[in-house]
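[Discussion] Sanity-checking designs against the backbone

I'm trying to build intuition for which residues belong where. Below is a C-alpha cell string of 312 positions. I'd appreciate it if someone posts a full sequence so I can compare it with mine line by line.
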C-alpha cells in the first residue's frame, strides 16, 4: 500500500507517517518546499530517511495533480494547512487559502483520475463552536467562531459533497484537541509545559496566559493518528468524532503541569487580557461513541495523562 501524507512535517503528519511505516506502507509526504522544509519532527521520530518527501503547493491545482500522479497513492491524508486558531485571527486569508483550496484540489484530482484512492480530511472540533455544555457528535450543527473553524467547516462540506455527488471515498475526522511534544511552541499547551519546566529549573520568569476558564477535550496525538487510518479501512466512507469524552478547564491543565514540578501555578502565572481572543469557545467536549462502536477506537490517555506524557 502507498500513502500520500500532505503536511507530513507537522505533528499529526509525522506521527501518521511513523504509524503507516510500521504498517508496511510506502509513505510519501508533501511540504511546500521539500528541499528547505524543516524536518525536525521526522528526525525526532527517526523516520526522515524513510519518507519520500516531495514539494506540493495545496492551493495550486497543477502542483497537486503532479504530486498525486508521481506517487499514485492508495490513500491520501490531507493534514496540511495553517493549524493555529489564534494565528487564524491575525491571518484569516492565509488560513482559509491553506486549507480549503487544498482539499478541493485533491477532491478534483481524485475525481478526474477516476481511480480508487481514498481520501482522509483532517477536520476539527472548532467547527462546532459553542455547542453549550453538551458532548458534540457527528449530528451536532456547526457554528464556527474563528477563521480556522470556518475553513475546516468549508473543507468538511466539500468532502461530504464530493462523496454524495461523485461517489468518492472521502471522509473527515472531526478531531478534538490532541497534544504531544511535537506541538509548536505557539500552542498554549506546549507553552505551558515548557514554561513550567523552565520555572522549576529556576528561570525566575512568570508565564503569561489568556483565559483559564475555557474547557477543552484534550487527548494524546499518537493515539488519534490510528483513528485516521481506521476510517479509511471501512467498507463505506463516514465521518467520525474523535475525542476522549472528558472536558477540563485550561486552569486544570496549568495546575497539573506545575503540580508535577511541585509548584503552585498561582505563584507562577499572570493573566494577560492582551492574550484574549476576539471570540473563544467556552466549553468543548466530544462524544466518541460512534468511533468506539464502529472503529473500535477509544482514547487511553486523558488530560492528566497527556500533561505527564508531554512533561516526560
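Best answer:
Here's mine. Compare freely.
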Amino acid at each position: 500500500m502507498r500513502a500520500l501524507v500532505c503536511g507530513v512535517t507537522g505533528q499529526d503528519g509525522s506521527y501518521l507517517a511513523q504509524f503507516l511505516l510500521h504498517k508496511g506502507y510506502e509513505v510519501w509526504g508533501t511540504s511546500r518546499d521539500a528541499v528547505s522544509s524543516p524536518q525536525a519532527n521526522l528526525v525526532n521520530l527517526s523516520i526522515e530517511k524513510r519518507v519520500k518527501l516531495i514539494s506540493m503547493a495545496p492551493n495550486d491545482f497543477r502542483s497537486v495533480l503532479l504530486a498525486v500522479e508521481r506517487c499514485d497513492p492508495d490513500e491520501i491524508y490531507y493534514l496540511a494547512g495553517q493549524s493555529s486558531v489564534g494565528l487564524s485571527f491575525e491571518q484569516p486569508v492565509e488560513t482559509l487559502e491553506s486549507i480549503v483550496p487544498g482539499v478541493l484540489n485533491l477532491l478534483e484530482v481524485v475525481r478526474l483520475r477516476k481511480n480508487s484512492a481514498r481520501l482522509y480530511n483532517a477536520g476539527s472540533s472548532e467547527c462546532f463552536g459553542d455547542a453549550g455544555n453538551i458532548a458534540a457528535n457527528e449530528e451536532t450543527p456547526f457554528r464556527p467562531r474563528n477563521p480556522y473553524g470556518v475553513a475546516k467547516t468549508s473543507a468538511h462540506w466539500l468532502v461530504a459533497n464530493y462523496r454524495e455527488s461523485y461517489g468518492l471515498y472521502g471522509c473527515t475526522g472531526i478531531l478534538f484537541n490532541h497534544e504531544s511534544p511535537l506541538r509548536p511552541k505557539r500552542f498554549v499547551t506546549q507553552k505551558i509545559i515548557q514554561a513550567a519546566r523552565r520555572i522549576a529549573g529556576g528561570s525566575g520568569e512568570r508565564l503569561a496566559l489568556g483565559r483559564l476558564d475555557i474547557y477543552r477535550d484534550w487527548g494524546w496525538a499518537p493515539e488519534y493518528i490510528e483513528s485516521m487510518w481506521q476510517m479509511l479501512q471501512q467498507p463505506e466512507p463516514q465521518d467520525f468524532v474523535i475525542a476522549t469524552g472528558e472536558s477540563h478547564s485550561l486552569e486544570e491543565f496549568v495546575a497539573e503541569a506545575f503540580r508535577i514540578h511541585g509548584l503552585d501555578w498561582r505563584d507562577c502565572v499572570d493573566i494577560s487580557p492582551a492574550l484574549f481572543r476576539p471570540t473563544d469557545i467556552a466549553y468543548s467536549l466530544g462524544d466518541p461513541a460512534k468511533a468506539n462502536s464502529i472503529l473500535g477506537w477509544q482514547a487511553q490517555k486523558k488530560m492528566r495523562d497527556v500533561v505527564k506524557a508531554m512533561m516526560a
